[in-house]
Amino acid sequence: MKVLVVNCGSSSLKYQLFDMTDESVLAKGLVERIGIDGSVLTHQPAGKDKTVINADIKNHSIAIKLVVEALISAEHGVIASMQEISAVGHRVVHGAEKFASSVLITPTVMQALEECIEMAPLHNPPNILGINACAELMPGVPQVSVFDTAFHQTMSKKAYIYGLPYEAYEKHRIRRYGFHGTSHQFVAQSVAELMGKDITELKTITCHLGNGSSIAAVQNGKVVDTSMGFTPLEGLVMGTRCGDVDPAILPFLMKKEGMSVEDIDNYINKKSGVLGISGVSSDFRDIEGAAEDGNERAQLALDIFAYRVRKYIGSYVAAMGGVDAIVFTAGLGENSVSMRASIMEGLEFLGAEICPERNNVRGKAREISVDGSKVKVFIVPTNEELMIARDTKLICGK
User: What is the pTM of this model?
Assistant: First the structure.
């Protein structure tokens, strides 16, 4: 069974084609600048050179058509015809309370996705465009929707209800939803396999750390809490997002600075986080470089980030009544030796201690805790696309 995984943004489209007999990637690629001058498709067949295709890509339907043409091309294709694609799996950001797992896409599901647009106005519309484009080009091929929010739907009300009048939840479904769910699920399952345990036997804290960051407490295979909330703004300080702040700061700033609603939204989503603190960049690599050169604000940004992650880890240990494994994933979590060390410093009282030699690695799945550590610490590179492909295979039953 071959599964095409599609992740549509407003002007981009990422894809991977999997052979699910061995979960190998046959090809992957990226379409950029959809609907914008200078649009391009970069196609990478497994074991071959990249192919760059410049074209006038006006919409997602044309983008999908070009992707399929690249996949079946005599020169750089990896399948004989599009009939070899058994199913398509789509990343969809928000499923609200409507979806607690991945689902086969039907007209009823599409209607529900439309209703979720107000929850993720920047992300769900292009996700829907991608689904419609595939349906148009590949009629009859089953499609599956895999949600960023679904894995977190096992949280109880005590974890997801905010301290607002209950009517806000009843009328508008204002609650904590959580994001990066596909990554947290993949990593939690992977670390259980590395430990030779069943996921239902473990208490795991998964740390998805990158430009966007979130942490999840996974007990017996189910999420009991997560750091992102109604939107991906809540939780940790991130690349450009402020994370947790006193909400009274927002009207205060709006009055003092004469900001509109749009201004303050831009301020807390795109100008804050480690970018706003450091004044250097939203890229942690740039900030780490500046800190090494003696930039005090850059070092402060790194210290704040590590401190916040450490606090969340501690709170989730309390929420679960213990922890068996702490896992680092995503760009920063997988690759920053110094950040992992900073986060873990001070958590020795939990019985979690990392080995400097084992920690000195980037992007490889491995245990980094010392021998005999009561709490195991791991790096697990995330693979959201493979998780989507697995769910798609499971649902389509081929």
Answer: 0.91
Architecture of domain 197-384: 2-Layer Sandwich (3.30)
384 annotated to a ligand binding site: yes
Query: pLDDT (tens digit, 9 = 90+) per residue, 70-93?
Result: 999 888 889 988 899 999 999 998
The number of helices, as runs of H, and strands, as runs of E, in the chain is 15, 14
Active-site annotation holder among 19, 37, 148, 391: 148
- How many Å apart are CA 344 and CA 174, to the nearest integer? 33
Give the whole-angstrom CA distance, residue 327 versus residue 218: 11
Rounded Cα distance, 266 and 213, in Å: 18
The reply, when asked if residue 394 is annotated as ligand binding, is no
Task: Please check if 212 is assigned to a binding site.
Answer: yes
Count CB-CB contacts under 10 A for residue 114: 12
The CATH number given to 2-147 is 3.30.420.40
Task: Using DSSP, state whether 120 is helix, strand or coil.
Answer: coil
Gyration radius of the chain's alpha carbons: 22
Contact between 250 and 243 (Cβ < 8 Å): no
Query: What's the confidence (pLDDT) of residue 96?
Result: 87
Q: How far is CA 303 from CA 78, 297, 379, 393, in A?
A: 46, 10, 21, 42
Which uninterrupted H or E stretch holds 194? helix 181-195
